[in-house]
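Internal ticket - ligand job 427, beta-D-glucopyranose:
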Amino acid sequence: MRKAIALILAGAMTLSLAACGGSSSTTAASTGTAPTAETTTVANKDKPLVWFNRQPSNSTTGELDMAALSFNENTYYVGFDANQGAELQGQMVKEYIETHADTIDRNGDGVIGYVLAIGDIGHNDSIARTRGVRSALGTAVDGANGIVSDPVGVNTDGSATSVQDGTIEVNGKTYTVRELASQEMKNSAGATWDAGTAGNAITTWAASLSDQIDIVVSNNDGMGMAMFNAWSRANSVPTFGYDANADAVAAIAEGYGGTISQHADVQAYLTLRLIRNALDGVDINTGIATADDAGNVLSDDVYYYDEASRSYYALNVAVTGENYQDYLDSTVPYGPVSSQLDAAAHPEKSVWLDIYNAADNFLSATYQPLLQKYDDLLNLKVDYIGGDGQNESNITNRLGNPSQYDAFAINMVKTDNATSYTALLAQ
Ligand code: BGC
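stdout (structure tokens):
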């Protein structure tokens, strides 16, 4: 019965696309046979488009690019709640300080010094994490656009103006908390969130700041692990990251302080699921808010949808010494949405998807392996394009023939650049 409704809805969508200038698309649902890419004649501008990981927005002000987010009626963004995650990240570091007060201050000067690896100063996730850490540790200062998220460079004496010294009281003793150093981790070719740059930075910082550094904080695990391996593991300095990449979670057993899971298992599912639903012509929340015909469904404690920004956001979870055993494999599909769809009711469709930087630890070690598992479960044939993390053209050059695909999933190099892609689809 459900299948019959799906078929009717799919047929209705075909008609409505044709009515708005799309053309006479032949879909699996209306013919009962799997379509090949060649038989699909829906205009590229009307095909499902999901932005993920980098939300179309102004990289200076953070303002959302609503033209890109509502490019057509099947356009969405999938990410995670950056503020909720950032708050957890800050709290995790603060709690660690509170519970390790007797050992944390390595040189006993009463100042708990931390260094911070900022990923990409124009990325909303990075900005939120810098703010979350500074707010929790009392080092934040307010600027014209909210809490200042600029890097301080080196701040040995606490005189930097983009942060202030904070205080934390533990067992009746008041410690000063100081952001001793922070910088964007961008390499000379322009790639951001760059692990190699972070590994070099900690070596430089340690040479001058040495045992003033009590904690290392990183806005992702790729950079965090580079710093841990280059310096903090050997010096027993707790290091905190973000993403719950498998190598970072495993390192918690060896002194890595903790990380945050941004529920990549839920995000990767949503990225492909929205495409599946749009192509099937069913309610967009099928298998998300409501169970699909295979029983897949998400509960609202792992994600939410924000209508105004057309964005689905996964919720974050802190991963620390207490629970890391449950997070050791970051590439397992999320249990409640891991059932195979029936290939007759949901025939194969082809999707173009890019990863903005093939060298990004989170995207390559966690997100893409998850996508590759879900594409099988959802009967999608996905072409994965790996970018160089530096130039949009390196990716858009490989979107030469969009007509070959039924849908698109896009991860931009720079959040301001949505039109580099939509221009190709609008032609
Ligand atoms: C992740 C980072 C990653 C970045 C790429 C963020 O959400 O946490 O690890 O480098 O996305 O855009």
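Auto-summary: The pocket of beta-D-glucopyranose is lined by residues 53-54, 119, 125, 193, 220, 222, 242-243, 360, 362-363 (CB under 6 Å). The two ends are 39 Å apart (CA to CA).
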